[in-house]
């Protein structure tokens, strides 16, 4: 059976949406256990984007953001990047530590560790979902935290982890707890070869 490009793209998008749903379910369970309270998450956006589109998605290259970066090795190679506004990052820390927001001061070492641990948990949740769908084994590195402008955050992992592809899996994740709403942008940026392997494993290449 021959499929058109639009049909292939639609199939791939359906698989990506399933990845987002499975990953979010994993992340909700892990974060709720870590925080010790019920939280809600949803995935309003799942799509493939070009790397040059990422700064605009984040609000512009000059927007100050907090990035959590992880290298990915194994059957799929590349890197994962979680990016939040500074306000969302502070809200997330307060949610985790049970503290009250008191301005947007610099993060303490404990708060930075908390953010990196959250990034570790979320990365694991989405990699587990991807592994479930593809059968690939993937290992994530220790997370790194960066506070910078969106354009600089994007360039850092490309230099750190070497050559990557020009395409990213983008999952916008919303986290809710009572009146708090946090938006975290998730990007999986595989190498060109890994991207081809993913397409083949998902049955759309």
From TrEMBL:
Gene3D superfamilies for the chain: CheC-like
Keywords assigned by UniProt, alphabetized: Chemotaxis, Hydrolase
CheC-like protein domain sequence ranges: 11-47, 110-145
PANTHER family: PROTEIN PHOSPHATASE CHEZ (PTHR43693)
Protein name (record): CheY-P-specific phosphatase CheC
Regions that span the bilayer: none
Statement: the UniProt record of this protein carries the keyword Repeat: no
Coiled coil: none
Protein origin, superkingdom: Bacteria
């Amino acid at each position: 059976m021959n499929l058109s490009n639009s049909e292939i793209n639609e199939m791939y998008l359906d698989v990506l949406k399933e990845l987002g749903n499975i990953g979010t379910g994993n992340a909700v369970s892990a974060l709720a256990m870590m925080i010790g309270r019920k939280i809600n998450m949803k995935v309003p956006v799942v799509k493939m984007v070009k790397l040059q589109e990422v700064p605009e998605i984040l609000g512009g290259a000059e927007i100050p953001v907090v990035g959590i970066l992880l290298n990915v090795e194994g059957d799929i190679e590349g890197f994962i990047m979680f990016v939040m506004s500074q306000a969302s990052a502070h809200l997330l820390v307060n949610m985790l530590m049970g503290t009250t927001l008191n301005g947007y001061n610099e993060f303490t070492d404990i708060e930075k560790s908390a953010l990196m641990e959250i990034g570790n948990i979320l990365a694991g949740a989405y990699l587990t979902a991807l592994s479930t769908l593809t059968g690939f084994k993937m290992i994530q590195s220790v997370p790194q935290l960066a506070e910078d402008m969106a354009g600089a955050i994007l360039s850092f992992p490309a230099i750190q982890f070497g050559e990557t592809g020009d395409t990213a899996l983008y999952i916008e994740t919303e986290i809710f707890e009572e009146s708090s709403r946090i938006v975290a942008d998730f990007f999986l940026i595989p190498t060109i070869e890994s991207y081809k392997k993913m397409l083949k494993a998902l049955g759309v290449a």
